Amino acid sequence: MLVFDFDGVLHDSRARAWRCYQDARQELELQKLPDLADPDDLPVVYQGVLSASLTRWIDFESAERFWKRHAELTALAAADEPHGVIGEMVGPLAELAAGPGYAVVTGSHHTTVHGLLARDLPAEAMPRVLLSRDEPGSKTDKLRLLRTRHGAGAYVGDTGSDVLHAHAAGLTAIAVAYGYASREDLYAAAPDRILSTPGDLAAYCQARTT
């Protein structure tokens, strides 16, 4: 089984994430956090473990509160997203679903991710398992569960944090360079492989089903 992160990997939510970052920063009056000019600035804050990355500007408890509110705001704004799954990934996900199966482990809310996946995928192409922030346990815990119960072998993420969780769970860490983090952050986390584009990820997935 192949496991995916959602935002930044299967779904391009960078514009929404940026808007909600700015909104949460303003709402919580955390002006010490950097004022990001546009979505291309997201790598400034998406470095390593997210809450720890914000301790360059604010304390850890405030960072945890910030990301919780950010998740709430991004869930509320999801209805305005023009697309669900990145176009190049629709076919490969259907092929995986019909073969070895795939799972999604995400820091977003379950209903948000399920709704966006269902925009482009029929029921038979949906993930076999979807674990979100609404289920207990860390991302490492959830990945380890998928490894032991379903034979998951690799996790595809877009941040250094995703890479660290994958390795901690005993999985191969595949990083995509088109998501939230910079290549420098990905390289620092030492993934087993970096894929540059959604087309590269699609080809990687298709190779696993043939």
From TrEMBL:
InterPro entries: HAD-like_hydrolase_sf, HAD-like_sf, HAD_2, HAD_sf, PGP-like_dom2. This is HAD hydrolase-like protein. It comes from Streptomyces narbonensis.
